[in-house]
Amino acid sequence: METFFGLTAEYKRFLLEELFQLQYHGKMSLGDAQRLPTYQRKWFIERTQKEVEAINKAIKDAKHKKG
After folding, report:
1. Angle between helices 9-24 and 38-66 (to 10 degrees)
2. Most buried residue, 16, 18, 25, 38, by most Cβ within 10 Å?
3. pLDDT tens-digit readout, 5-61
4. pTM
């Protein structure tokens, strides 16, 4: 249900997912993650995703070189 005031349930789930990612991968406390401005929160998540993709590619390339 959409409301004018407050966050929708969908946005709350999206925000919680972002906060979880920052805690789990970024080792941030919940309070630190919550206090980040939106643009910084998005940047940290996108940057972490790029790093994970680069690591996964390096692992895949190393496996292909072995055999």
Report:
1. 60
2. 18
3. 788 999 999 999 999 999 999 999 999 999 999 999 999 999 999 999 999 999 999
4. 0.77
Supply angle C-alpha 49, 17, 35, rounded to 5.
Answer: 90
For 4, the token pair is 């004018």
Provide the greatest CA pair distance for the chain.
Answer: 58
CB contact at 8 A, 22 and 28: yes
Q: In terms of C-beta distances under 8 Å and separation of at least 24 residues, what long-range contacts does 44-51 make, across chains too?
A: 45/18, 45/21, 48/21
d(CA 63, CA 56): 11
